Amino acid sequence: MTSTFSPALPAVLPVALPDALDRLAVERCARRIAAAVESVLAELDGLRAAAADCWSRAAAAGRRPAAAELAAVHGAVSELLAGTGSRWFGCGAVAAPGALADAELHVEWWYRGARGAGERRLRLALDPADAEFYDYRVLPWFARPRDEGRPVVAGPHVDLLCADRYVLCCARPVVVPGAGFVGVAAGDVPLAALERLLVPALRALPGEAALLDGEGRVLAATTPALPVGSLARGLLADPAVGRGAVPSEAVDWTVVGGRGDLFV
User: Fold this and answer.
1) What are phi and psi of 19, to 5 degrees?
2) What is the model's pTM?
């Protein structure tokens, strides 16, 4: 769910670093991770453009698109899912309430089938009267792009479609002139796939290091003392640990590092 939007990155915010950890090393690490985040979000550009085109064409005819017209994003979805070395498990376009002519809520989403079974269309209960109603309007990957007009990497959370693995949902707002916010272009990336981009930056730090989200959950680490998915909230305030905020508006992540015995 993206476009060519490339936001300016805020300054890194290092916090009280111990002598054992070099401040500049933490800043470099945080910037490398921010660049990795932006590179993943940029992969959604084609999907975001395809979604925006659906609404732009309809707007040119003085109408809103029908839900069936969003199937036009399938080509961009296939490029993401089937691309060489693709890290995406599933992706698609998600409509804002009332943005379509014939559906209040609509999700146009495909995901990889098991064992090379190809793409599969995701079916969700989108009727509020349904006992299994999936209300994406309140989820961070939809609400934050809608309310704040910025991309987001939400999670990690367990996605049952992804074999009970942790995934991150990357989403970007789709905004069309004359129509405003019409939805998001988004995709799920297994955390294990993103680790391959994150861990090399952490390994460049002296000592052991980890990447935590805003809740203190471990996203990646160079030490087995901090397994991925575990909570390590204390490290966000521990004065003995070096910390630096990742300078990307899409995440609230923090790099932490120090001697190995600090993480035991």
Assistant:
1) -60, -30
2) 0.87
From edge to edge, which strands make up the β-sheet containing 242-245?
14-15, 242-245, 254-258, 208-212, 218-221
User: 241 near 257, Cβ under 8 Å?
Assistant: yes
Q: Which two tokens stand for residue 206?
A: 């002296």
User: What number of other Cβ atoms are within 10 A of residue 24's Cβ?
Assistant: 9
- Stretch (H or E) spanning 174: strand 165-176
Task: Give Cα separations from 137 to 41, 52, 90, 146, 179 (angstroms).
Answer: 21, 19, 19, 9, 18
The answer for residues whose C-beta is within 8 angstroms of residue 115's C-beta and 6 or more apart is: none
**pLDDT digits over 172-231, tens only?**
999 999 889 999 999 999 988 988 899 999 999 888 899 999 999 999 999 999 998 899
In contact, 191 and 166? CB cutoff 8 Å: yes
The β-bridge partners of 211 are: 220, 255
246, 30 Cβ separation under 8 angstroms: yes
Burial 36-47 (b: 16+ CB within 10 A, else e): bbbebbbbbbbb
